[in-house]
């Protein structure tokens, strides 16, 4: 089961976390309320394609979006794209909306927006309605994430 894989990977990572389960939500505001955090602390994990069979996880605060020019500059490339839902599932093992670096089928590199630092955040744990509340600094360390300003 996907949820078990994400939660188990979190447990195995050694990252201090609290699993939060909630019913389906329809907006960022509902997700934040269900998780007990502010909208900016709800972390979206976005899969970005850099090249054939080369992807990266980008961790984005809920109230922000990827700044494509900043991300292209960070990687030194002219083109990046988001895979379709089927490809995202194939390269991560998760459905869109449940994607997390924890328990993904491949350990793609992680880039975390700098706004994750110095705060408590909530990241998906591999299934709809399942998340983990964690310290942003420890999340970055645990995932060995690069930190940069990559959002608007």
Tell me about this structure.
- This protein has helices at 2-13, 28-35, 68-75, 85-92, 136-143, and strands at 18-21, 42-51, 54-61, 110-113, 120-127, 130-135, 146-148.
- With 152 residues, the chain is of the alpha/beta class.
- It has a seven-stranded mixed sheet.
- A hairpin with a 2-residue loop joins strand 5 and strand 6.
- It is globular, with a radius of gyration of 14 Å.
Helix proportion = 25-40%
Q: Any idea what the CATH superfamily is called?
A: YbaK/aminoacyl-tRNA synthetase-associated domain
The low-confidence parts are none
- How would you sum up the major sheet? 7 strands, mixed
N-C termini distance: 35 Å
The level 1 CATH classification is Alpha Beta
Net shape: globular
Helix segment tally: 5
CATH topology type: YbaK protein
Number of domains: 1
Q: State the strand order across the main sheet.
A: 1-6-5-2-3-4-7
Q: Which class of secondary structure composition applies to the elements?
A: alpha/beta
Cα radius of gyration in angstroms: 14 Å
Count of beta strands: 7
Topology order in helix (H) and strand (E) letters: HEHEEHHEEEHE
